[in-house]
């Protein structure tokens, strides 16, 4: 018996060939349905497992790895079109080192999929202490984490994190929220969640006046930020520091838990908050790409 199974996950159509050709074994239809149901249920329950792909490219090369994300190289205000480059990111550990495969969607001929009980990517981060070791702003609330409104930011924000401090009514500020000092997170200490080397820094930009309408033009604003190089190819970017508050410099070796500065409202930010993202550097694309991060505490 032959049949083609199509599963849609996070915007990707996965093609699983007939059992004889792809799986080398026969799975009865009812069991196949049950497995698909259990798989989709585990996705809905945010299971710790992962999706493993084998990709046949149009040049007839095969690439395998854990599926990390589907990316679109466009800004949220740009319309989707055939001109927008779209990529799949796969991960594998090879000889103890991380290896990422960035595959353009138009180059894919076919994909085979398999569900695994644990994430090799997450396990690699935890094994090498590349997860977040401590709270970056103690007591702050996660507004966005590994998902959310940063999805379409030229592949820089798919897994961005935003922190604020909420009161019992779910507000981030007291009074009318017109002043920087009205925001609970403003001027709060920022601690590095990872160890590494400072490779990027800007600290001299003036903090913006809060704009709850989020309608002002921030296109020419520059963030006060730090970039920390971890175990290659991983980097951490921490953004929106208060002007002149950053206490470390380029070239400094820092440890997890070390104070970096305080939260501000600099750059592309309407109200005080802290934005941070784990990246990898893609040698093939010559650029940074946002990837998932996890907590080790």
Structure report:
- 10% of the residues lie in helices and 35% in strands.
- 29% of the residues are buried.
- It has two domains: 5-127, no CATH class; 129-297, Glucose Permease (Domain IIA), CATH 2.70.70.10.
- With 297 residues, the chain is mainly beta.
- The chain has helices at residues 19-23, 29-44, 120-127, and strands at 5-9, 12-16, 50-57, 62-72, 86-94, 97-104, 108-116, 141-145, 161-164, 189-191, 196-202, 225-229, 234-239, 253-254, 259-262, 274-282, 287-290.
- The strands form four sheets. Strands 8, 9, 11, 12, 13, 14, 16 and 17 form an eight-stranded antiparallel beta sheet that branches. A five-stranded antiparallel beta sheet has the order 6-5-4-3-7, with helices on one face.
- It contains three helices and 17 strands.
Terminal Cα separation, in Å?
49 Å
Unreliable stretches: 1-27, 31-47
Main β-sheet description: 8 strands, antiparallel
CATH domain fold name of the largest domain:
Glucose Permease (Domain IIA)
Number of helices in the DSSP assignment: 3
Helix content: under 10%
> What is the strand tally?
17
Order of helices and strands: EEHHEEEEEHEEEEEEEEEE
- The proportion of residues in beta strands is 35-45%
On the 0-100 scale, what is the average pLDDT? 86
Task: Offer a concise description of the structure.
The chain has 297 residues and is mainly beta.
Helix-strand layout with pairing:
Blueprint: E1 5-9, E2 12-16, H1 19-23, H2 29-44, E3 50-57, E4 62-72, E5 86-94, E6 97-104, E7 108-116, H3 120-127, E8 141-145, E9 161-164, E10 189-191, E11 196-202, E12 225-229, E13 234-239, E14 253-254, E15 259-262, E16 274-282, E17 287-290
Antiparallel strand pairs: 1-2, 3-4, 3-7, 4-5, 5-6, 8-9, 9-16, 10-15, 11-12, 11-14, 12-13, 13-16, 16-17
